[in-house]
Amino acid sequence: MSTKKRMLTLKEKIDVIEFYNIGKPSVRTQADKFKIGKTQAAEIIKNKEELLRKWSSNVNILQKRSFFKTEGYNIDRATYEWFVKARAKNIPLSGTLIRSKAKEIASKLDYVTFNASSGWLERFKKRHNITFKTISGESASVNPEDVRSFIEKIPSRLAEYHPRDIYNADETGLLFLALPDKTFAFKGEKCAGGKMAKERLTIICCANMAGYREKFMVIGKAARLRAFQNINLNNLPVYWHCNRKSWMTCQIMTDYLMLFDKKLQKEKRKILLFLDNAASHPRDVQLKNIKIIFLPPNTTAFCH
């Protein structure tokens, strides 16, 4: 009675090849040593050049199966070669981008039935030893005692305010021409980003504990963009501001807080507003209906 074929990993197949190279043993000897069939042992030796090529590349050595169909292999190989070239240029690659490229390659090869599904992407990553990494990042030192002390004081500060009157505001940069800061890459590969696109907008976001969001302020470079021709800026769904670098400044933040304060005066509301201690956040602005609490230095990620 024939035994069930045992699937070998790439590493195990290389072991078979190395054993064969030592003394050119017979197929039966190889089969007995590695507990595989004689036909299987013969196929491994027959395909040893291809197996050794895979071994020397960055594929998963624990992989047991590969594409059996020619079209699948061609798509995989072309996508892999594109991936290698893109990473050599430090181009960030997302899963969506890899799947899109695989579909494009399949279309060029006239493989109309190919679907670059999420499952295909996971198998592609496993075959080629690819992981998802953050390209770069930095963090400032944080004093745990400052965080603990600040958090302990929060309940007493919030006691006299309704959730709809407790706000947090912060700005974020929208680098609308920038590439992702994460990428699929080979395990062990050092991820270094290239020169980042600097075109940006700065957006001030402000919301309360009840989930209500105030009108955004957007900071750009131009006082009036070409797209804003014949448009009344007061009718935009955001406040529009500008400076040479599209950055937040102390004056712009003061203007925003003054607008917000006037709105609250009309509504006869007094609120508590949390801000981080960025240099662009004014300490001496005179507000009637807004009480500002500044977060301790470098603790934004812990206290928000």
Give structural notes.
By secondary structure, the protein is an alpha/beta fold. It has three domains: 10-56; 71-128, Arc Repressor Mutant, subunit A (Orthogonal Bundle); 144-177 and 197-226 and 233-294, no CATH class. Helices cover 39% and strands 15% of the residues. The chain has helices at residues 10-23, 27-34, 38-46, 48-56, 70-88, 95-108, 118-127, 144-158, 250-267, 300-303; strands at residues 130-134, 166-174, 182-186, 201-208, 217-220, 239-242, 271-275, 290-294. The strands form two sheets. The chain has a six-stranded mixed sheet, covered by helices on one side. A two-stranded antiparallel ribbon has the order 1-3. Strand 4 and strand 5 form a beta hairpin. The mean pLDDT is 82. It comes from Sitophilus oryzae (Rice weevil). It is found in: Nucleus. Residues 63-134 form the HTH CENPB-type domain. Keywords: DNA-binding, Nucleus. This is Tigger transposable element-derived protein 4-like.
Give a count of the beta strands, DSSP E runs of length 2 or more. Answer: 8
Tell me the Rg in angstroms. 30 Å
Total domain units: 3
The tally of helices reads: 10
Termini gap: 68 Å
Order of helices and strands: HHHHHHHEHEEEEEHEEH
Give a short account of the largest sheet. 6 strands, mixed
Residue fraction in strands: 5-15%
The proportion of residues forming helix, as a percent range, comes to 25-40%
- Helix-strand category: alpha/beta
> Any idea what the shape is?
elongated
- Average pLDDT taken over every residue: 82
Give me the side-by-side strand order of the main sheet. Answer: 6-5-4-2-7-8
- Which segments are poorly predicted (pLDDT under 50) over 5 or more consecutive residues? none
Keywords: DNA-binding, Nucleus
Main location: nucleus
Protein name: Tigger transposable element-derived protein 4-like
Domain HTH CENPB-type: 63-134
